[in-house]
Amino acid sequence: MTSKDPNAADPSAENLGFLPATRLAELIRTKQLSPVEYMRALLDRIKALEPKVNAFVHLAEDAAMQGARAAEKALSSGERLGRLHGVPVSIKDLADTADMPTQHGTHIFKDNQPAEDTVMVPRLRAEGAIIIGKTATSEFGWTGVSRSPLTGITHNPWKHGYNAGASSAGAGAATAAGFGPLHQGSDGAGSIRMPAHFCGVVGLKPSFGRVPYNPISLGDFTSHNGPLTRTVADNALFLEVLAGPHPLDHTTLEAGPAHYSARLHEGIKGRRIAYSPDLGHARVDPEVAELVKAAVARFQELGAHVEEVKTPWAAPGPELIRFFWSAHLTRLAHYLDQWEARMDPGLVACIKASRDVTVATYQAWRAKKYAYVTSIHRWFQDWDFLLTPAVSVAAFPAEKLMPDHWPQHEWDWVSWAEFSYPFNMAWNPAASVPCGFTPAGLPVGLQIVGRRFDDLGVLQAAAAFEAVQPWADKRPKLD
Q1: Is 369 marked active-site?
Q2: Residues 13, 42: Cα–Cα separation, whole Å
Q3: One of 34, 90, 146, 167 is an active-site residue; which one?
Q4: C-alpha span between 124 and 85 (Å, rounded)
Q5: Which of 47, 217, 227, 429 could bridge 223 with an S-S bond, Cβ 3.0-4.6 Å?
Q6: Cα dist from 470 to 431, 436, 438, whole Å
Q7: What Cα–Cα distance (Å) separates residue 334 from each residue in 183, 217, 337, 374, 415?
């Protein structure tokens, strides 16, 4: 592990790769840093280190350099400069891009070229961002382990061969590796927060509807788009650009985002914070539990009222997620006849587990889910935030679905990720922020959950914690 100033403008490729977007945009806007020189250094870094990480499934070098030259020209033209002028951004390989393949981590869609961009892409470009490539995902985003049949293992930058988290594996690994400051992810049961936890970065699943998601996901409105970054300020800035209503996603919230960046400093003094080490049912490795408990104590120091509590609403969660995770993946069952031999065996087992589920059974379980969601929101009437571990385990070998010391199952990876899916079902904003390292040097994340629509509050809580326990200066050794 190395520690360096995250705001440094050292011209080396390493330091430029770790430069926060907030600082990078300022340096470019004030002509202290050439976007062309920056992009060239960043691409050189990515190409040199990608064999050790495998974060990208497509790196658009020519387009990135063309965008950087256009950004440099615009600095002297008097035209409007967007909030992300000249700043590189990556897009996850589950999101459609008209000028780059979208392969969903599967042989089934190898070299697939969508006809149009998802709505996030033009929104980013309108603010001057440069899309540099597509990042790796597990097959159809089905699992929290960073490998797919199409692209192989995406390696955790903190330990080669270890899980970087999924399905936004490439985004999390790229963030940790210093492959630029802003990486888009999506989260259907923890797929932004898991890579943030495993890779030691910041990941926010916003309130459902905050960021457009198109085409609409078929997971009963549980998938959320959001940012992975190294700093909370970058996360806030990225969310401001991504968020806001759009007609191609009828579930988006009517209101645009708050000015998150300008209000991060307001703190959490007097806020009521609940802490649950296990939601009453989750197994947690002791080294993870210890780091999370120590992090929770910092919130008391920040002037919040913190209390360890019971979460009676959580009990039905394990049965609900296992039913719905498998049931929703039956949408892929029609591929099995032709593609089963080339698909992830765990995904195949998960699909087959629910092939005989009837509509009546699905609707009965859906009624249980909505009662569960109501109980979560009723409980949150008494609390501003809930703190939990982000994930129950630190990174483990990525060729495995489960850590060796956990009960094994042919597809149930969710047993080590019991903390995230409740808030996909309930649509609460939830973030994973780094809270320390295990004795083996592997990152651990603290989850901060807020009331629905209080994305600002979650970011403020994350920023307050970052101020007393900073992490952006910690870098994995990749060279």
Answers
A1: no
A2: 6
A3: 167
A4: 10
A5: 217
A6: 16, 10, 16
A7: 32, 17, 7, 34, 27
Q: Could you tell me the two tokens for 280?
A: 């009453």
Summarised one tens digit per residue, pLDDT across range 384-411 is 999 999 999 999 999 999 999 999 999 9
Q: Hey, what amino acid is at 177?
A: A
Q: Are 243 and 258 in contact (CB under 8 A)?
A: no
Token pair recorded at residue 472: 């952006």
Is there a catalytic annotation at residue 191? yes
Angle made by CA atoms 458, 320, 222, in degrees to the nearest 5: 45
What sections of 107-168 are H helices per DSSP?
120-126
Structural domain of 206: 2-475
Encoded tokens for 109: 């869609």
The CB-based long-range contact list for 97-100 (8 Å cut-off, 24+ gap) reads 97/121, 97/131, 97/134, 99/60, 99/63, 100/58, 100/60, 100/131, 100/133, 100/134
Query: Which one is catalytic: 34, 90, 191, 354?
Result: 191
Q: For this structure, is 159 an active site residue?
A: no
CA 276, distance to chain mean position in Å, is 22
Tokens representing 432 are 């994973």
* CATH label of the domain that carries residue 209: 3.90.1300.10
d(CA 108, CA 268): 47
pTM, entire model: 0.96
Enter the DSSP assignment of 114: -
The H or E element spanning position 336 is helix 336-339
Distances (CA, A) of 27 to 38, 78, 86, 207: 10, 17, 10, 32
In this predicted model, what pLDDT tens digit does every residue of 191-250 receive, in sequence order? Answer: 999 999 999 999 999 999 999 999 998 999 999 999 999 999 999 999 999 999 999 999
Q: How far apart are CA 320 and CA 425, in angstroms?
A: 10
What is the tens place of the pLDDT at every residue in 261-314? 999 999 999 999 999 999 999 999 999 999 999 999 999 999 999 999 999 999
Whole-angstrom Cα distance, residue 159 to residue 295? 23
Write down the catalytic residue from 92, 134, 205, 369: 92
The helix (run of H) or strand (run of E) holding residue 319 is helix 317-329
Task: Return the residue matching tokens 């039913």.
Answer: 323
Q: Which contiguous run of DSSP H or E holds residue 325?
A: helix 317-329
Residue ranges in 358-454 assigned as alpha helix (H): 359-379, 422-426
